[in-house]
Amino acid sequence: MAKSSAPAAETKNKEIRIAIAGIGNCCSSLVQGIYYYKDVKNDDELVPGLMHNVLGGYKISDIKIVAAFDVDKRKVGKDIGEAIFEKPNCTQTFCHNVPKTGTIVKMGPVLDGVAAHMKDYPEEQTFAVSDKKAVDVVEELKKAKVDILVSYMPVGSQKATEFYANACLEAGVAFVNSMPVFICSDEKWEKKFRDKGIPCIGDDIKSQVGATITHRVLSHLFAERGVTIDRSYQLNVGGNTDFLNMYGERARLKTKKISKTEAVESQLAKRLSYDNLHVGPSDYVPFLKDNKVCFIRMEGRKFGNVPVNLELRLSVEDSPNSAGCVIEAIRLLKIAKDRGVGGTLLSASAYFMKHPMTQFTDEKAREMIEEFILGKRER
Fold first, then answer.
1. Whose CA is closest to 299, among 226, 233, 369, 238?
2. What is the pTM of this model?
3. pLDDT tens digits for range 194-228
4. Which domains does the chain have, with CATH numbers?
5. Of 126, 111, 152, nearest in space to 330 by CA
């Protein structure tokens, strides 16, 4: 593992105060990870999935959760250390001693965060909306002196995601947009963050090793080796609320499909037609819970137009797969805040997100991040 090389003197405040919007499976894995690795103090200890255990002088344990928002009655009003284990969360528990944090989950606005079809499923599988009044999110962010907000809104939550992005702009809080609503990759939104000197990373978090990153790497490999790709698909099934949310209302998938398709297409030598490239969620299988099963097929031609076909099955616990990426994004945003950098961090977005402002190969994006850490690149 490479050593962290950013000057420690740059860190102005060793504590990174974060807020989380959406206390679902991804949040559960993030919170568990913060406590699972709380004693890691240097780069000599192995932490799978991190670029650096200490990044720009910041350790994992420097991340403090000081505000949290959700709409589910089983989570609102509880300490986040308890709320992450409430239904319908179903991801694996890998840290069994998450303490009470003193941070109570507050009621956020529902807006379009809950799809209409979700009410047709058993409560243990779906959202149960609280009847409490939504708090003033901007005031909560200011009161808690939040540095960075991580948004885990459900896919298709355009209004809810924009609401939290606006709240960050009003409160002076950096923004990690983990979901496929285009904020950090949209020129108008990006300008708002840049003009206010507030950094952001987005949109749509990649996994450590998931369906899209695997499909990207294989597509890049085929292109680099001169194989012409004629057709390809990526089919995904899972049993968490993310899959249920997308299963019953296909309109919510519009930006998700664009995000995943762009991530793969950007690595091809030649773009494929809509009929020849299918990338997207496929079905909801309740007993899989947070396990995601991905099927990838690629059909191409090598020298002499001789066919070459690849088929792959990948099975992963979905939510822990992105938690390390979010931990890195949080620390990179804190470095940006320390330096007074505003707008989208192009390097981090290209490496950690499916739909950044500008697509690069993952190798190039990682190189750009290392340059940013060293202060050789502004964003």
1. 233
2. 0.90
3. 999 999 999 999 999 989 889 989 999 998 999 99
4. 8-207+320-374 (3.40.50.720), 211-317 (3.30.360.10)
5. 152
